[in-house]
């Protein structure tokens, strides 16, 4: 379904225990629109995010992963790009609350393909709005200097009472 849309490309960044199996699967399935980049230094990630149209995060169906907010999601929100999350639990909830992109259940390849195509078919202004929503959500909920200031104010309130 997604393979037939020439303008859709997936760039997989990073390496890990599944890298070899993923590379083999890409080759065996002749996925010309999937490119494995490998490990990239953290200082280059901001420019990679900036040059991306959409950011994709997938997590396996695991209760522990469903209950956490990966730092990658926070980075994606901060980047101001639309996000597709293939995950159960809190990550998908955040994308919905933030109106920052689309989500689908973990491990549901047809649902993921539909989400990719749906985002691809959106008007550029609509995709930009999703990215701006994500950036705003990040600033309102995860921006560290603001969270630290809130914590200090809270401690001051406790100490003064």
Second rung of CATH, namely the architecture? 3-Layer(aba) Sandwich
Low-confidence stretches: none
Radius of gyration: 18 Å
Helix content: 40-55%
Whole-number count of domains? 1
Name given to the CATH homologous superfamily: Glycogen Phosphorylase B
Q: Indicate the proportion of strand residues.
A: 5-15%
- The strand line-up of the biggest sheet is 3-4-5
Shape descriptor reads: globular
Q: How far apart, in Å, are the first and last alpha carbons? A: 62 Å
Number of strands: 5
Mean pLDDT across residues? 90
Task: Explain what the structure shows.
The chain is of the alpha/beta class. It has a single domain, classed as Glycogen Phosphorylase B (Rossmann fold). It is 54% helix and 13% strand. The strands form two sheets. A three-stranded parallel sheet has the order 3-4-5, sandwiched between helices. Helix 5 links the parallel strand 4 and strand 5. The protein is globular, with a radius of gyration of 18 Å. The model has no long low-confidence stretch (mean pLDDT 90).
Which SSEs are present, and which pair or pack?
Layout: E1 10-13, H1 19-28, E2 34-38, H2 45-51, E3 55-58, H3 63-66, H4 71-79, E4 83-86, H5 90-98, E5 101-104, H6 109-121, H7 124-141, H8 144-160
Parallel strand pairs: 1-2, 3-4, 4-5
Q: What are the key terms here?
A:
161 residues; alpha/beta; Rossmann fold; two-stranded parallel sheet; 5 strands
What's this, in brief?
With 161 residues, the chain is of the alpha/beta class. The protein has helices at residues 19-28, 45-51, 63-66, 71-79, 90-98, 109-121, 124-141, 144-160; strands at 10-13, 34-38, 55-58, 83-86, 101-104.
């Amino acid at each position: 379904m997604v393979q037939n849309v020439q303008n859709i490309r997936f760039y997989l960044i990073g390496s890990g225990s599944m890298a070899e199996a993923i590379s083999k699967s890409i080759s065996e399935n002749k996925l010309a629109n999937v490119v494995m980049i490998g490990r990239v230094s953290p200082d280059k990630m901001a420019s990679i995010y900036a040059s991306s149209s959409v950011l994709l995060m997938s997590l396996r169906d695991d209760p522990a992963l469903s209950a956490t907010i990966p730092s990658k999601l926070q980075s994606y929100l901060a980047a101001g790009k639309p996000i597709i999350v293939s995950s159960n639990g809190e990550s998908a909830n955040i994308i919905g609350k933030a109106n920052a992109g689309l989500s689908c259940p973990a491990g549901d390849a047809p649902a993921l393909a539909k989400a990719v195509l749906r985002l691809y078919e959106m008007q550029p202004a609509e995709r930009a709005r999703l990215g701006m929503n994500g950036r705003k959500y990040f600033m309102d909920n995860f921006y560290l200097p603001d969270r630290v200031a809130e914590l200090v104010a809270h401690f001051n309130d406790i100490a003064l009472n």
